[in-house]
Amino acid sequence: MVQSWLQVSIRAGVRDLDALSDFVIERGSPGVVIKRGGIDAFFPSSRRNAALRRDLRRFVADRLRAAPRVEWKRVRPENWQHSWKRFIKPSRVGKSFWVTPPWLTPPRFRRRRVITIEPGMAFGTGTHGTTRACMEFLEVVRDRVGANKFQVLDVGTGSGILAITAALLGATKVCAIDNDPVALEVAAENLRANGVAEKILLSDKHLSAIQQRFTVVVANLTAETIDDLAAGLQKRLASNGYLILSGLLHRQAPAIARRIAGNFRVLERRRKREWTSLLLRRKN
Q1: What's the pLDDT tens digit per position in 222-265?
Q2: For a disulfide at 159, which of 3, 87, 92, 122, Cβ 3.0-4.6 Å?
Q3: CATH number for domain 91-282, candidates 3.40.50.150, 2.60.40.2890, 3.40.630.30, 3.40.190.10
Q4: Rounded distance, CA 74 to CA 18, Å?
């Protein structure tokens, strides 16, 4: 079946463009075009579109300085490629990777690996600051512990990009879980496209059903979900293990850090636009 798409055009003041771009990417838009005086964003048509429109109305009402003009329209499948693909570019992430959609070839660079991600209905294309920070932190932890002790649990894997990153960094064990069937389908395809499907256990298990312990647990989720899962995330960490938390707005990060302060110390914070990502280490 041919995928159909929705385009939302938002005309707003220049000071609101970063916040709008982050919002639509967080909600799963694989293509965002920033123009003078506004943005165009694209979303796959799905049952979630009504909730997406509602969330955008709330975001606009609660967060922006002035009410923007918002227009929605359906993009015909035959015009989809010309609508946004030309705006998606290879992205250099950390010191190890190029992230690219499958229709583009990244620049050649001998010391970088290529991760190919098909933009779709699952979050995580390597363009959003929260995803990039998690990839960078995975590099940091791998360098700290060594590949032979690098074992990763990716909670809420989305597109699978963080699990792919861990596998390409040499992790001896990678488990990726998500409760969204669409995300699992997208992740499975991305794992195959990057030649790591046999190195990653992809599952719809709930965090509470995971029994193993890992040297690294990464959760690029919302602050509310991280708060709900805090106890479970800690239980899945080995002694002195590393916890990577992302998807946090700047104002949310201190509360999340306090929530788990008794068992962890914050090693590093990374800010990208209005987002903060945390690298923490378990105290015992």
Answers
A1: 888 999 999 999 999 999 999 999 988 888 888 998 888 788 99
A2: 122
A3: 3.40.50.150
A4: 24
